[in-house]
Amino acid sequence: MRVATWNVNSIRTRVGRVVDWMVREDVDVLAMQEIKCKPEQFPYQPFEDAGYEVVLHGLNQWNGVAIVSRVGLEDVRVGFDGMPGWGEPVAPEARGTGLAQELIRRTAGFAKRKRGLWLFAETSSRAPYARARAFYKSAGFEEAARFDDFYALGDAKVMFRLKL
User: Fold this and answer.
1) C-alpha span between 145 and 160 (Å, rounded)
2) Does the N-terminal or the C-terminal CB of the chain have fewer CB atoms within 10 Å?
3) Which helix (H) or strand (E) holds 49?
4) How many domains does the chain have?
5) Structural domain contains residue 86
């Protein structure tokens, strides 16, 4: 099974590129972040035409996640018991709760059960993302690659990996 993640930074802008890549690379499941749209704005048809199911959670043009799968999606839930609120900006009660560590633990457990070998994460090299980079390192990830000027001039994509 081929499982991938992608910070798409607006699926409506990149839908053709994403679907073409999924088909070309034979991806079974794609987890996307920063889809930047509500469910009624999501471009479902190109994914469905390529044989994929889609579930998503998006609130506005600033965030959102989606899972696209050709191996089935079942028992889909948004959130979990005891999940803290977020707010804008992030509510203080959502910081330092271990939520992100728990999500990594659960994702790694799922990937191991499916015989996955690695867990990958990505973020920007810009200063505002220093906390994200430090978090990944504290969670046991190692920097695996940098793609210079990926997001913009001077803004590299930094890829991290965690051996399962």
Assistant:
1) 7
2) N
3) helix 44-49
4) 2
5) no
* Cβ partners under 8 Å of residue 64, min gap 6: 33, 34, 35, 36, 37, 38, 56, 57, 58
pLDDT value at residue 29: 94
Question: 96 and 67 in one domain?
Answer: no
Task: Give the single-character DSSP code of 126.
Answer: S
115 and 162 share one domain: yes
The whole-angstrom separation of Cα 17 and Cα 99 is 32
Residue numbers in the chain where pLDDT is lower than 50: 88
Assigned token pair, 49:
């035409």
Structure tokens at 121: 């994460």
Q: Which residues contact 153 (CB under 8 A, 6 or more apart)?
A: none
Residue 70 contacts residue 51 (beta carbons within 8 Å): yes
pLDDT recorded at residue 101 = 80
- Write out the two tokens for 66: 């989606």
State which of 44, 72, 100 marks the end of a domain. Answer: 72
